[in-house]
Design a protein that fits this description.
By secondary structure, this protein is an alpha+beta fold. About 30% of the residues lie in helices and about 30% in strands. It has a three-stranded antiparallel β-sheet with strand order 1-2-3. The radius of gyration is 14 Å and the shape is globular. The C terminus is likely disordered.
Length: about 100
Amino acid sequence: MKIFNTRYSEKDRPIAAEVRDGRLWVTLKDGRIISAPVEWYRLLRGGAPEQWAHVEFSPGGVHWPDLDEDISVRGLLSGSAAPEVHKVSKTTQAA
C-alpha cells in the first residue's frame, strides 16, 4: 500500500468557486483566480445553478456534494482536465 504525504500550501487554499459563462472560476486564499472549462468536468457540467451554489472547500480542493464532484487545486493549477475528457479527445482525434 502506497501512502502519500500530501501537504497543501495555505496560499493555495480555495475560498470561493463559481460556475458561469461555461467556466469554473476558483479563487485562492492569496487572491489568484483559476479558470477552467466546465466541459472538463462531466459531473459539474451536468449540474444546475442551485447545485453549483452548494459548494464546500477543503485545504486542497473544491467539492459539490449535490453532484458528488471533487476538483483539486493541484489539478486546476496544472491545467488537468478530468480523465474522461482526455479519453474522448484521443478517440475524437483518431477518427
